[in-house]
């Protein structure tokens, strides 16, 4: 057999003492007090209601909870009541043209001014009158930018060329 180390003996002893102390404290809680001070007994009698005062589960009617004010309802996450409908709502903004899907790469000034455009999917060289992707018509290639018309809505747009950084 294996020999028990002194440390293990100390741990077993501490465990036994804690079990004895726990049993002693639990027996003391269950025992009724033998004699209580007269002032303590009088104060306790006044503070605790008598069994006859308690309606218990046999009570047939229970009072309703008081109504909550709107701030308390909002604190509990309930939605506040809907505001009254507005008399006249503003008309929605007219639809605008989406952003131009190309970036300006360069400009050529041979007999006809042209712009070199680039996107993720393709590159294009365009001149005035060309239609890009079936949605954008190039109206003019100017020194400062590109004049376009978004064909589905007929909206004119100016795309300025980026200036080279110094």
Question: How would you summarize this macromolecular structure in one to three sentences?
Answer:
Residues 80-94 have a biased composition (Pro residues). This protein is of the alpha+beta class.
Write the layout of secondary structure elements.
Blueprint: H1 6-30, H2 38-47, H3 70-75, E1 103-109, E2 113-118, E3 123-127, E4 131-132, E5 136-141, E6 145-150, E7 155-160
Antiparallel strand pairs: 1-2, 2-3, 4-5, 5-6, 6-7
Protein name: Secretion system X translation initiation factor
Keywords: Initiation factor, Protein biosynthesis, Signal
Biased composition (Pro residues): 80-94
Structure keywords:
3-stranded antiparallel beta sheet; 3 helices; single chain; alpha+beta; 166 residues; 23% strand
Description:
The chain is α+β, with helices and mostly antiparallel strands and 166 residues long. It is built from three helices and seven strands, in the order αααβββββββ. It has helices at 6-30, 38-47, 70-75; strands at residues 103-109, 113-118, 123-127, 131-132, 136-141, 145-150, 155-160. A four-stranded antiparallel beta sheet has the order 4-5-6-7, with no helix packed on it. A three-stranded antiparallel beta sheet has the order 1-2-3, with no helix packed on it. β5 (136-141) and β6 (145-150) form a beta hairpin. The chain is elongated, with a radius of gyration of 44 Å. The chain starts with 5 loop residues before the first helix and ends in a 6-residue tail after the last strand.
């Amino acid at each position: 057999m294996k020999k028990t180390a002194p440390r293990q003996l100390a741990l077993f002893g501490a465990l036994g003492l804690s079990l004895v102390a726990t049993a002693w404290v639990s027996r003391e809680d269950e025992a009724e007090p033998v004699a209580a001070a007269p002032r303590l007994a009088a104060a306790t009698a006044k503070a605790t209601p008598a069994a006859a005062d308690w309606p218990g589960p046999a009570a047939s009617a229970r009072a309703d909870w008081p109504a909550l004010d709107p701030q308390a309802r909002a604190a509990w996450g309930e939605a506040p009541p809907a505001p009254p409908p507005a008399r006249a709502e503003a008309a929605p903004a007219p639809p605008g043209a989406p952003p131009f899907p190309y970036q300006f790469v360069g400009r050529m000034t041979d007999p006809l001014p042209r712009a070199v455009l680039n996107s993720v999917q393709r590159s294009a060289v365009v001149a005035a009158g060309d239609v890009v992707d079936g949605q954008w018509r190039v109206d003019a290639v100017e020194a400062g930018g590109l004049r376009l018309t978004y064909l589905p809505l007929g909206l004119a747009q100016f795309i300025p060329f980026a200036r080279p950084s110094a």
